[in-house]
Amino acid sequence: MLSSPPLGRLLLDAGVLTQEALDEVLAAQRADKRRLGELLVERGVATPLQLAQLLSRQLSCPWISLAHLEVPPDVVALLPADVAIERHAVPVYLRARKDKRVLYVATDDPTDEVSLAYCAAAAGIPVRAMIAVTSEVRAALARLYGAPEPEATAGAESDSGAAPATPRRSLAPKRASSAPDGPASAATIDDDDLEEVLDPPPREARAPTLLTLNVSDAFGRECDDAAKRLGARLVNGSIQRAAELVAEHRPCAIIVNDNVYAFDRAGLNRLALEHESHLVVWREDVDSRQLEPLLAGAIDRWGRTSYEKGAILDGRYEMMRDLGESPYGTLWEVRNVRTARRSVLALALRTPDEEEIVAAIRRTHRALARIAHPGAPALHDAGITELGDPYVVLEPIDGRTLDGLLAARGRLLPAEACAVALQLAEVLAAAHGMGVVHNDVAGAKVLVGRDGYGVERVRLVGWDRATVSGRETLDPSGDIAAVASCLFACLAGRIPSDDEPIADAGVPDPVAEMVARALRRPGAAAIDTMVDLADAIARVEPRARERMHLLEASVAKRNVSLPPKAPSGATAAAEPAGERRHPRGAYRTPVRIEVPGKGLVDGKSEDISVGGLLVVAKGDIEAGTTVTIRFALPLDGKVIAEAAIVKWSRTAQEGGAAGLRAIGVELVSPSPETLRQVDKYVSLMGEA
User: Fold this and answer.
1) Contact 308, 334 (CB under 8 A)
2) 255 shares its domain with 318
């Protein structure tokens, strides 16, 4: 394990104290043997929480609150009481992956590598540090091991007393309020009722460092030019001083040529792995234009080091599966380490160029805090990560997107189309009643999934553009028009063009008139509220309240929702005529399809079975093409690659469903682990 700069050195580098002040504190420490952090707090240099946050930023080390953390007994037993108390370390989490186990311990000084080494030796497994404030470490040691808890000194500064700008972690309403009956109602929550968790104080930006070892002068200049364009700092050194330079500068990338790499392959690999740096091995005959993208990727990875699969975020959420980018920022499937409940976590990386992502997280937070309706995702939690990035935790929702359904099927029957639109209108009516406008209703944000009773229901996601206002100033017209556009797309297979006569697209007359009113077409009496639109849908199509069968597995039930044969120029329903060979489960995850000799097609899966996946993407692949498909397994989130064959690739019609295509991919010979995880997932989440 590479050594970290001692606490005193970090405080000097950060400008928190002078060398003279540090020497004075160190002299006092030698006299009374107390921990350096305690003496710094006693002398008013910083509060414990400020010290913890400083160390977290400087070392890219997770910060954890122990105040309400419940540590499993088997984890406590890994560290003997005498070692935990003497070394001031609290075991908090055991990370097990195949044959590798790592114990995370909370300490107020993660630079004390002697203590960490003692803990690793006592536990018999590697140890990684997390940062906690001193008082919480002492209280946890008293609670878990019976260590004596010191009495509070009169007038002593609290852990948070001098840090008014420190972010608070709770998003729960400050006061509880009862909600009136009915699915469209929710507790009245004003913005002032919410803890402001998404506005942490500005943090000092850390410039990424690139380290070159024994490179030529010409290549060194290329690296220096690339570093300047990327806003990074370049350090040149020799292979003989590699370990020393890495410990001193903590680079995000180590750059060597292939000759140097051949000289000490094992040592460089180990050095990069231990420091979590990206190792760039360069060949002089490679086009230099490829250098900057490589370094940019390393810098991006460095900025996201704490947000990788398996990491523990905010001491509570284990990051399980990367769900890809979104307007929120980064989406992850996470598991609460205390309750084992899985959720979706939307994370915004706070960089100067991405403040809009932070705003999207804030809008999602404020909107969903007001809404209580089965058609909207529940807001589970929100907070700030150890590195100061805001996040929200949402209810996980599985299902097929409306865009994906239309790409595969072409169109829906009027009853099914109106059922989708009616449920969509009802959740938006509830939101409008609470002063929330969605502002981004589209087929990609509309999911059809099953509730706990197996009934198909519509869920509306993507609240990152929502606005919250008073009911008297609310403007619902945009949402009303968007629902009408979705209804039109369900019946015509495409969104309506401007001023197009609705009936000319084959939409039934009663529905066409209603859609024209919702779109505010000339000569049509406008529909002014979402409640009025829901009532109008129910009147023109009474069957809209009947049960939908868009996800049914059997041919008999599935064919209920299929429209008649598509007209010339349109593609017929994408589903095979016979019974499905394997049960499926709704499963949305980023997918990359590699087509030999042609390139890549990126998309998202809609469902999965042991036989293959249904993928929605904008690229076209001919049926019969042999491909490689990459996706994350549903249980552990590991990204795998499998050989596959494209069985079919269809779209509704030209210009339909946002230009998306539904692609049926059959796995050729999936690995036993792939089969095991998919089979278990479908048995838990799949179709009956």
Assistant:
1) no
2) no
